[in-house]
Design a protein that fits this description.
5% strand; 85 residues; globular; 4 helices; single chain
């Protein structure tokens, strides 16, 4: 699967909701689909992005990815708005 805008959205939703299942419900995806996106990101970067526990927490690499992912999605929203005008 690799790096995709959807995978970045999924990752941020996991962080926001604290679980794969909750992120899936929010995004209208199955838990396995959410897990596949997370796995693809971890494979792409070769690092663990989340610490599994009662609530999923980002590793330092996950925090780094989250910050960049949010900027990418914010820039994409600006791009879409500007092109639509």
């Amino acid at each position: 699967m690799g790096l995709s805008i959807q995978s970045l959205r999924v990752f941020l939703s996991i962080l926001e909701h604290g679980s794969l299942s909750a992120a899936g419900r929010e995004l209208g995806m199955t838990q396995p689909a959410v897990s596949n996106h997370l796995h693809a990101l971890e494979e792409r970067f070769g690092v663990t992005l989340l610490v599994r526990g009662r609530r999923l927490q980002p590793t330092p690499a996950g925090e780094c990815l989250a910050g960049h992912a949010q900027r990418v999605l914010d820039d994409l929203a600006i791009l879409e708005a500007e092109v639509a005008r």
